[in-house]
Amino acid sequence: MFRVDLNCDLGESFGQYKLGEQEEILNYITSANVACGFHAGDPTVMRETVKMAIAKGVKIGAHPGLPDLNGFGRRPMQITPQEGYDMVVYQIGALQGFLSTFGEKMQHVKPHGALYNMAAKDQALSEAIAQAVYDVSPELVLFGLAGSELTKAGEKLGLQTAHEVFSDRTYQADGSLTSRTQSDALVTDEEQSVNQVVTMVKEGYIESQQQTKVLLRADTVCIHGDGVHALAFAKYIRNTLEKNNINVQAFHV
Q1: Three-state SS at 99
Q2: Where are the alpha helices (DSSP H) in 65-186?
Q3: N or C end of the chain: which has fewer CB within 10 A?
Q4: What's the pTM?
């Protein structure tokens, strides 16, 4: 029996702006990445998201991003490794405060958007992020792009590290995600999306946009909660994975 975690970025509403059907999506995922106020989210949204995730038995992780609400954290910024370290510690601490009020432990940390992609290729930044996670708690799981500098940094420090793959993104020959600035960055066909996940989990590779096989490890699969058909897709991918003898469960069950 194969095993994989199914994670989703949640808590990304802000003030009067509502994004996604997170309460319903929580029925189908095993780990929730909760925005911590830099790229999205606010204190009230964070608390409500934590409360809902606990009620559904979904494990909770911090989703730290760059301080860019207007760009949803998807625009790269020039930051030093020390600044990256400080941003991650700060945002983990914000979410940890809410978890403590519910007596719940944090499972993981997954950087968001541009910070995630920057860390995937930047060794110094990835090591700073991994160190930030370790210094807060060496028991936390670090989520990073499969085979990236971030997962390497986590493993080097001795963190439990989850290699992450994406259900709705295309890949380049070097294992990186196709930039969202390109028209072919997203996989919009649901069947194609799920089939590529099953292949990654069971066979350990993805076919790149250059028609090459990229070997990778799939510990956790990311689905996005802000799409038009996000809820229907969450249900579809969960059911399909289980039909393919893939056990869907969180790391700290």
Answers
A1: helix
A2: 81-101, 113-121, 123-136, 149-157
A3: N
A4: 0.94
